[in-house]
## 1
Amino acid sequence: MAKTNEPTIIKKYANRRLYNTGTSTYVTLEDLAVMVKGEEDFVVYDAKTGEDITRSVLTQIIFEQEGKGQNLLPVTFLRQLIRFYGDSMQGLVPSFLEYSMTSLTKEQEKLRSQMSEAFGATAFEAIEDQVKRNTEMFERAMKMFMPFPAAGGDTAASSNPASTAKPAKSGGSDLDEMKRQLEDMQKKINQLSEKS
């Protein structure tokens, strides 16, 4: 539907059905969500009382989207928002949120390009490099805690205790398992970096 200067009027009937007066058809909340995404303005009126119920219908759309697992609103944010009801700051919250969302909307393309630059194809390389460094540091730290070789061992064995020393039974299997998990993680990271 083409965008107009006047908002489309939606009527909500007692049976909870929504009627789009612009297209003369019944619509769903999903249809209204599509209209919002298409930047088509509308106002929802209760068909019986004539009361403007746009806010509650938009809230229903958000509730349905959140229920589908498309979570935009963090739990912390929702709790903070609820705390503002009845608070002396309640009057400032709507204008602050509106300003914040307007700024985000204006800057979204710039933000998208910055995010792709920051986390684009090179992101996997940076993550892989960091994981390698962390793995090396972890292995060095674990070698420090490995038991020393038995007395009389040669100097080559002494310089690399992990190659000849037999760790304690309980710690050895844990260390081997950790090494195996690190190798698995490294393989997965390599596979991800090859795909990008």
## 2
Amino acid sequence: MRTWEGVLETLVRERRGALVGYAFLLAGDRATAEDLVHDAIIRTFSRARRLDNIHAAEGYVRRAITTQFLNGRRSRATARAKQHLLVERDAPPADAATGAVDEVTRALGKLSGRQRACVVLRHFEDLSTEETANRLDISAGSVKRYVHDAMVILRGELADLAPDEPDETVSAPVVAARRRTP
């Protein structure tokens, strides 16, 4: 077996769930997230690269996911044409954590593509402003502006979820929004 085939197999077996979670934060939809990951893996491994390290391969795939999301590779017409192929999702168990996740997902859906990508990279991927700017090929000032504008929107959308004291059970945008509230 060639080295890249082993890396591909390991990436899909061990990191696919994390990649789908990352794509879900961007897309806000499980089916779209699965498609983004699938397409990003194909794009990453179809090019002649020396991918002999799982961490480098995952970095390439994450970048491809972000790029595909921002480029809007899936048109609405294509999505509508495939809509009949979708099956109804199983209802998730109802609990407080699920409600909070749903609220954060809904709030992230109110952001523009660039705002959402900046928030996900800064607060969920824990990248610095400069790293986020490099990943998205925009200036650090633009990242700061997108994050600021996004946090204003998220603060308004998630005000009910923010506790007085941040804890580990509340996601990063909620905690960040609460910390920045005057």
## 3
Amino acid sequence: MNELPSDTALILVDVQPDFMPGGPLACHEGDAIVPGIQALLRTRAYRHVVATQDWHPRAHVSFAANHAGQAPFAQITLHGQPQTLWPVHCVAGTPGAALHPAIDWTALDLIVRKGADPAVDSYSAFRENHGPHGTRPPTGLAGWLRERGVVEVHVCGLARDVCVLWTVQDARALGFRARMLWELTRPVTPESDEATRSALAALG
């Protein structure tokens, strides 16, 4: 086993069936990361392993179906910020919201469920999106990691250009070293990859 330092954690973002091909919010080749994540978890190289899980009520504000006359992927303003409207996905308790069944999740130490507030979207593992009070409420993950001495996080999962990217950006903003495991991520659409690379480069 090639164990990593104990101050390094793995964050697996939204590896759920609804983001796989055939799901309502399919990422480009999303299922291609499943074997690699399974192999990585089998190594038990990380002392701390966290998964996030999109976990929405059916009346969630980010669903286009809840906005009359709006189609999925339309852009609106929500709480003063740009908001993409998504197809209905990862409804709490549905099979599509489960952690992917082809992965052995026994290495997990923590599951962070996000997006449960019907009025606020939630991309990052660390903070929800902007809410009605103009703030981004924390999920509690940063404190959990700090209590365990974690200073660096490796992030993979779905989608590369949304929730994975936001998680890396927030990790850096909160003082963690952070890197994206690029090959173990996939975007909603590959056309976004150039912008994602630029955003990562801007982190230094």
